[in-house]
Amino acid sequence: MARKSVREEIVNAAVERFHTHGFNAAGVKDITDIAGVPKGSFYNHFVSKEALAVVALERYGESRRLPELTDASIDPLVRLRQHFEFLRDENTVRDYSRGCLIGGFGTEMADHSDVIREAVRASLEHWAQALAAPIAQAQKSGQVKTGTDAKTLARFILNAWEGTLISARSEHSEDSYEIFFDTVFGTLLA
After folding, report:
1. Residue 151 and residue 128 in contact, taking contact as beta carbons nearer than 8 Å
2. What is the per-residue burial (b if ≥16 Cβ within 10 Å, else e) of 68-82?
3. Which of 29, 49, 106, 107 could disulfide-link to 120, CB 3.0 to 4.6 Å?
4. Per-residue DSSP letters for 2-14?
5. Where are the alpha helices (H) located in 22-97, listed in sequence order?
6. How far is the C-alpha of 167 from the C-alpha of 175, rounded, in Å?
7. Pick from 91, 97, 69, 74: which is nearest to 161 by CA?
8. Are 134 and 184 in a shared domain?
9. What span, in angstroms and rounded, lies between the C-alpha atoms of 109 and 23?
10. Which of 36, 58, 80 is the last residue of a domain?
């Protein structure tokens, strides 16, 4: 089997390290050690750790299964619920040891790095747009009331999700997930 490129090894290691320890606790040497590449090779591919963080956010975003939200063969509310169930399960299987890399960078770095703050903003906007699509479809079909714009509902739900992750992680409990699902799918989108 062919080895991945050095750049890919670094990106994969960075996503893992950033997601596990955050931006500040993930040194370039830590990342290159995990990737199994010399530290000097880092600078052949990235101008800074911030530049790597932006690529790591993009890669993490790709793993959020956003394209599945557009699968018109599945009921829009089922798609939406499955999306959040996947994310919940991903976090519970890790025993609540991680939250969301996007939210983590947002809380840790937004006040310290314009580059990372903009990448977080763009990531959240992209995610909210993906969530708005099935919400709009559910509104069009009459499953969800049309009193609030789909984009506004999507952003609110995403904000609620990020808060749910923080709460679940601090409590090491599924209680926050139950509240999220009951409120979003039992009240807000009912």
Report:
1. yes
2. ebeeeeebbbebbbb
3. 106
4. PPPPHHHHHHHHH
5. 28-35, 39-45, 49-62, 76-92
6. 9
7. 91
8. yes
9. 8
10. 58
The alpha carbon of 133 is separated from its chain's Cα centroid by a whole number of angstroms, namely 17
Q: Chain centroid to CA 132: how far?
A: 16
Residue 52, judged by CB atoms within 10 A of its CB (0-12, 13-18, 19+), counts as buried
Q: Which two tokens stand for residue 169?
A: 């992680």
Angstrom distance (rounded) from CA 138 to CA 132: 10
Residues 35 and 87 in one domain: no
| C-alpha angle 162-66-54 in degrees, rounded to nearest 5 | 70
146: which residues sit within 8 A by CB, 6+ positions away? Answer: 139
Cβ atoms within 10 Å, residue 137: 20
Distance CA 147, CA 64 (A): 28
Task: Say what the pLDDT of residue 4 is.
Answer: 75
pTM of the model: 0.93
Cα Rg, the chain, nearest whole Å: 18
pLDDT along the chain (190 residues), means of 10: 82 97 96 96 96 98 95 97 97 91 96 97 98 98 96 98 96 96 97
Q: What is the CATH number of the domain that holds 52?
A: 1.10.10.60
In a domain, 161, yes or no: yes
